[in-house]
Amino acid sequence: MESLLHDSKKTLVTINGIMKDHNSSSENNNVVINLDHGDPKMFYSYWKKVDNECSVTIKASDLISYFVNPKEADFFYQMPGFNDAIRRVHRVIGNAVAEDRYIIGGTGSSQLFITALRALALSIKETNSNGGKRIPVVCAEPYYSYYGEAIEQERSKLFEWQGDANTFQEKSGPYVEVVTSPNNPDGTIRTPVVNREEGVVIYDLAYYWPHYTPITSPADYDVMLFTMSKTSGHAGSRVGVTTYYRWAIIRDQDTAKKMKKQILLTSIRSSHEGQLRATKILNFIADKYEHDPYYMVEKPSKVPKLFEVEGLFEYGHRVLGQRWEKLRAVVVQHTPRIRLPDFSPSFCNFMGKLTSPTPAFAWVEFESGEDAEEVMRKLKFQGRNGSRFGINVSRRYIRANMMGDDSSFNLFLERLSSLRIVD
Ligand code: PMP
User: CA quadruple 212, 186, 40, 416: dihedral positive or negative?
Assistant: First the structure.
């Protein structure tokens, strides 16, 4: 059987067999690179340029009260400016319909995902007794590994994880299907696969932004989830009292109220510091596209400092585009037994031109049948093995983060390019 050989100046490793020579003298050769998590560090250099324009100052006496929006008895913990910024950014980018919807801020995806599930399962159970059984939750393989893990951890009496939606089509009864589009891990655009009347769908649209995929129409679904982590890259603000915001947009008032109650009871609301920061960042993103002379028909004589940087989505699409190009070149030149998914360009309404998808993760297949995690481990990479994305997903797949920092990505390319096929 063919095997893959890793051969660099300092290391020689047969991936299918034993390590032959590994007397690395270079510091870099010994560094283990973590491509497992979807850490969006590539956004650092963008935000560094506008540190001052986008900083938020919070005085010791600020934001003491629980109440920031006393007029809204249901959502008194949510700043009106935060809601407006979310609606504005969706309107300007055109990726989702957010007007006349409830906007519910939360602390990270686990909170809102599980909160949405509880609310939906409760609503379903109120209209359909389901024989007292838990509501099945499914998602087509390969699916984001978090869903099953979080649901199983939850041990809920209301819902249970039943894995691959493709194997659920023949079953009957109510269910919840999660549709992740573009999909994590493989970047594909997805629609529901079960399509039965008794089902409800949660759309996880974390990556439905122009830096990852062409925006072909505004998403207009009952339950949609987005996250700042993948929009602007502010994933780490959940540390301590400052959170970043993930929001759910709900059309049905009853479900929204149930979600709101869940949030009230489980987290005692989301932090105002995080809402302030998200508001600042989202308004900066929208300002750029609404008021930057570059995008305006009548150009003002002086360009404000704020607009000297390129738009966030042009930056993100450019950086990811270059990375995908380099990765494909390495795969074609050096490692013909490794396959990457192909994506066709589509017209992006936001960019006003044809753009190619540049997903946040590379879904790498080792066609020679190797265990991808094993290969990556020998190259001193941590990636997420295919088996974590569904029980029928082969171990010859691995998910590698494309949103990390430059040095990790370059090392990834360097080490990958040292793989050779041997008989
Ligand atoms: N949904 C999808 C599809 C994701 O890939 C991620 C991050 N990996 C999330 C949600 C969660 O993002 P966060 O927890 O940072 O909100």
Answer: negative
